[in-house]
Amino acid sequence: MESGFLWVGLTVLLGGFVAFCGLLKNVNAWLYESRLGEKRFNLPPGDLGWPLIGNMWTFLRAFKSKDPDSFFASYFNRFSRTPGVYKAYMFGSPCIMVTAPEPAKQVLMDDEHFGAGWPKATLELIGKKSFIGISDIEHKRLRKLTAAPVNGHEALSVYMKYIEETAVSSLEKWSRMGEVEFLTEIRRFTFKIIMYIFLGTESEQVMAALEKEYTTLNYGIRAMAINIPGFAYHRALKARKNLVAAFQSVVNERRKSQAGDIASPAKRRDMMDALLEIKDDKGKNLSDEEIIDVLLMYLNAGHESSGHITMWATVFLQQHPEIFKKAKAEQEEVVKNRPPEQKGLTLGEIRQMVYLSKVVDETLRIINISLMVFREARKDLNLSGYLVPKGWKVLVWFRTVNLDPEIYPNPKEFNPSRWDDYIPKPGTFLPFGAGSRLCPGNDLAKLEITIFLHHFLLNYQLEQLNPGSSLNYLPHTRPVDKCRARIRKLSSSAM
Description:
It is a single chain. By secondary structure, the chain is of the alpha+beta class. The chain has one domain: CATH 1.10.630.10. The chain has 18 helices and twelve strands. A five-stranded mixed β-sheet has the order 1-2-8-5-3. A hairpin with a 2-residue loop joins β6 and β7 (about 385-390). α9 (about 180-200) crosses α10 (about 205-220). The radius of gyration is 25 Å and the shape is globular.
């Protein structure tokens, strides 16, 4: 008898728990879908997950496992791959996730209907006056003012010599060090370049301090926005505060110098000088906040993305001897055809590196240094036959597009030859985004990577000490051991 009552009690408790979970599971739907009325039936497939956390737990669990693609595999298995749009609750907001080329192209190219939509937490870390936080009009103005000093032909020509000298000296140094954390050294290499271009400094002490703060900042960008001691986002906010203070000090010193003295003609101008002096069509200078947020953004993207891609391109080349051999032969041909009096690379020679360009593009496609980009619907919209409600975030996932097996057979196979006679259709290759908000430093990043690989291929080999190292996928794909390796020198420099 008592046993029977016990089973009844357990059954009631279990039923109540299941009912409670069912209620919780529907809270977000009630909060965000019910207010749409009949229009909610036109939302794409998917679900809004649990209250407050939404689908973030599933996302973080997948990207902290050995199979990050399991996150979207669950959507494809439940709702099919065909629509390419799904409803979810991510980064504190209801959203539409875009995983296919056509809707991705529509979102990225249509500035009239899709505005910037980065989460508040990301804006707090990168800066409300950076490219990701400002309005379309401000973005157009700021991009126009800063494009030439960063990506212009003249600017790239000026940067080339320093990039090449740094690549040559870094490779030589690493070859004498024995074991190195290759990723750590590559990130220092790219950070040294971006610091020189923007702030004109080569101080090892200053660079080490700032690079440490940037590392902390990046771990917080993809974390949940929990501003409590011990959490990544809290540490990232402190890192931003330290970076802003450092840059404000530099801005103050430069402004004081400009006001009280005429710079020496021999002084090398850097991007800070350009940012302080540029004016828009109405003669308006950038504010301190704009300058600092632009610096913070460029210095972050300028070493994180190019550093990780350079490491992976080097690793992929070394893992594929035939590809290495073909890329090396191309670089030897470039040097062979160089006039005897020429010292160092030229932009013309960079353009001749057709196969190496495919190596870089293939690395960008596989590694996906940016997982996604955030937009926001400015009014109710139709996307692939489904409703995108006004005010909802729209997340374009670069990873699913760049690794789509219907576009790229065997998508995780490193195969630069897949680019032979192949021009990707709009929306099918998104290493730097697309549209008016395309990554502003993409040409500089590719230049750095190409120059480094040129000298690596000619004179060095990489010996990974733990080629089977497991990977971390947040904030960027990287080996857990940071690619511990030896850099072996094969011949003298080709400079």
